[in-house]
């Protein structure tokens, strides 16, 4: 299997530690992803293929497969593929809403093909995800992914309502992140295995992942994250680093996010970093990882699976550090 270039070193450690089975399973997922986006007309097929070709960490499929275990299961391969298709769909739709020019350092579908085609591409990816799961005949899996998709939509709407609001507090921010990010990680784990301990594990590492994403938006480096510093600020997305920084430096609350340009966003990133907010948010993410590992101890796993999942948990907060 060719590893996507955006896979961080802590997660490549998972692939190395599970070399006898996981890379081959992920290779099957990659092949099924290619099949799922092929065809569907010249325009949609081209745009869906470009989205897939942009790569990704494949963390959510990895979680499905790790929770399912080393014995090959066609249902697990399909579930892993389906959840990545949903993730891809949300990224395409996010780029439409944000008018984002880049994703993972490459032009977005919205930038190259326009908003209408990008919206249709996201819709295609969503439909293919549920078609794959429906073929398994597993109503539980379909319900899990449908519930997570609804949570994603609610989280996105909440983020839009909260845009440019420098009065946003941590509680509201975390609630929104649980919907928009945590629930899909949680779903990935539960698609792999029906174990309530995995609900907490997935939710916590999903939150930790989002907190680190928000740290990286401020700190970069752009050549690794694939987007300019301060992209969230330019979109009006108030994240925990900004909330923490404003608590330490109340003058930050006077910033006019709607008037920011790229240079202003860079300057505000520097001001946020100067408060020590990034270290505090990273520490918060590490606490979530510790909680996730504690939940993992209650799950019915063989030692190898538990060790591999713990490595994934560590990896979500060790990216580019």
What topology does this entry show?
Blueprint: H1 9-17, H2 22-37, H3 42-53, H4 59-68, H5 74-98, E1 102-103, E2 106-107, H6 109-113, H7 115-134, H8 139-161, H9 170-192, H10 196-219, H11 222-225, H12 231-235, H13 240-248, H14 262-274, H15 277-296, H16 303-316
Helix pairs in contact: 1-16, 2-4, 2-5, 3-7, 4-5, 4-9, 4-16, 5-7, 5-8, 5-9, 8-9, 9-10, 10-15, 13-14, 13-15, 15-16
- Just name the CATH architecture of the largest domain: Orthogonal Bundle
User: Could you name the ranges where pLDDT drops below 50 across 5 or more consecutive residues?
Assistant: 1-5
Tell me the distance between the termini: 26 Å
Share in helix: over 70%
Tally the structural domains.
Answer: 2
Strand content: under 5%
Q: In terms of quaternary structure, what is this?
A: single chain
Query: Can you summarize the main beta sheet?
Result: 2 strands, antiparallel
Task: Enumerate how many helices there are, as a single number.
Answer: 16
Number of strands: 2
CATH superfamily of the largest domain: Farnesyl Diphosphate Synthase
User: How much is the radius of gyration in Å?
Assistant: 19 Å
What's the CATH class of the largest domain, please? Mainly Alpha
């Amino acid at each position: 299997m060719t590893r996507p270039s955006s896979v961080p070193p802590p997660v490549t450690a998972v692939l190395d530690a599970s070399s006898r089975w996981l890379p081959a399973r992920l290779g099957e997922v990659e092949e099924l992803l290619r099949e799922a986006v092929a065809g569907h007309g010249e325009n949609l097929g081209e745009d869906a293929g470009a989205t897939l070709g942009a790569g990704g960490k494949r963390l959510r499929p990895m979680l499905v497969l790790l929770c399912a275990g080393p014995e090959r299961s066609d249902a697990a391969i399909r579930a892993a593929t389906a959840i990545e298709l949903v993730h891809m769909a949300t990224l395409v739709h996010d780029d439409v809403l944000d008018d984002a020019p880049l994703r993972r350092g490459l032009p977005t579908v919205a930038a190259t093909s326009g908003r209408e085609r990008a919206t249709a591409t996201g819709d295609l990816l969503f439909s293919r995800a549920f078609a794959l799961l429906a073929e398994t005949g597993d109503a539980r899996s379909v319900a899990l992914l449908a519930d997570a998709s609804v949570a994603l939509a609610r989280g996105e709407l909440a983020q839009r309502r909260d845009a440019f609001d420098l009065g946003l507090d941590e509680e509201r921010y975390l609630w929104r992140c649980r919907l928009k990010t945590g629930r899909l990680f949680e779903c990935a784990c539960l698609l792999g295995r029906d174990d309530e301990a995995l609900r907490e594990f997935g939710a916590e590492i999903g939150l930790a992942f989002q907190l680190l994403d928000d740290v990286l938006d401020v700190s970069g480096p752009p050549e690794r994250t694939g987007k300019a510093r301060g992209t969230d600020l330019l979109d009006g997305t108030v994240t925990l680093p900004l909330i923490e920084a404003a608590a330490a430096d109340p003058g930050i609350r006077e910033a006019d996010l709607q008037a920011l340009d790229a240079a202003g966003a860079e300057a505000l990133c520097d001001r946020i970093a100067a408060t020590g907010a990034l270290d505090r948010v990273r520490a918060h993410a590490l606490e979530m990882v510790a909680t996730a590992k504690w939940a993992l101890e209650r799950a019915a796993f063989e030692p190898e699976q538990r060790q591999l999942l713990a490595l994934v948990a560590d990896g979500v907060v060790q990216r580019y550090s």
